[in-house]
Amino acid sequence: MMKRTISVLLAVMTVICLAFTATSCGSKGYDLEKETELVMVTNAAFPPYESKDGDTFVGIDVDIAKEIASRLGKTLRIEDVDFNSIITGIETGKYDMALAGMTVTEERKQSVAFSDSYATGIQVMIVKSDSAYQSIDDFFNYDEEGNPVSLKNPDIKIGVQQTTTGDIYSSADVTGWGFNDLNEDESTKTDRVTRYPTGADAVEALKTGKVDVVIIDNEPAKSFVDTNKDGSGNSVIRILETEYTNEDYAIAVNKNSTELLAKINEILAEMKSDGTLDSIIAKYIKAE
What we know:
alpha/beta; D-Maltodextrin-Binding Protein, domain 2; 2 domains; 6-stranded mixed β-sheet; 5-stranded mixed β-sheet; 9 helices
């Protein structure tokens, strides 16, 4: 009887947590006065925003996090996890803030709170160098108003890093500039998107012909183009001329970490004003 009672209580608590996801059940948020450490969570496979040089974390997001921790008087600790576990980790209070080239979306805002934007990201399409694709117009058929209505190639295969913005956008139906067909109940009927743990995995799938296109942020895309060359020094992949979409990057925190969020926004404003943010970005992204 005791086991049954405990099981019922746990079930009720689970339902309550699910019903009040917006309040980040199980987490009190970050305590600015008591905490001495600030834990940043990321997926260190997204250069130039975050990657690893040996055992050292480097990148735009890493330097921004270091500056935030310094100005808060905290010690920074960085955790490298799968991208698709970042939101849950923030929501449950396992990590304090997420910097991972993360786009603000309505779906993510249901689980976490976002800071002001600190960078603009552009999603682009990578294809093999000998691909016939030249621009986004080569993928869609349009109506008279310029809206996509169908795919020119219904057998196209798209590669993305799982749960990233590229995954979210490309997984929509064709009328929403995605690559999937939906049933009337909005369940997926034809899923043309293959999801990989990292962008590098998606690029490898492209090179071996498992997918036709990889959708990813513009800056990592440039890095992949630079590092994937043949014996003559020519890149085996290229970026299409037109962008797929653009977005704002922001820092995610637990919804109960209201003081931390306010401080992060204050520091970001200071960094924009005193030139620190521009300096960090210029360190990794050279002006063309």
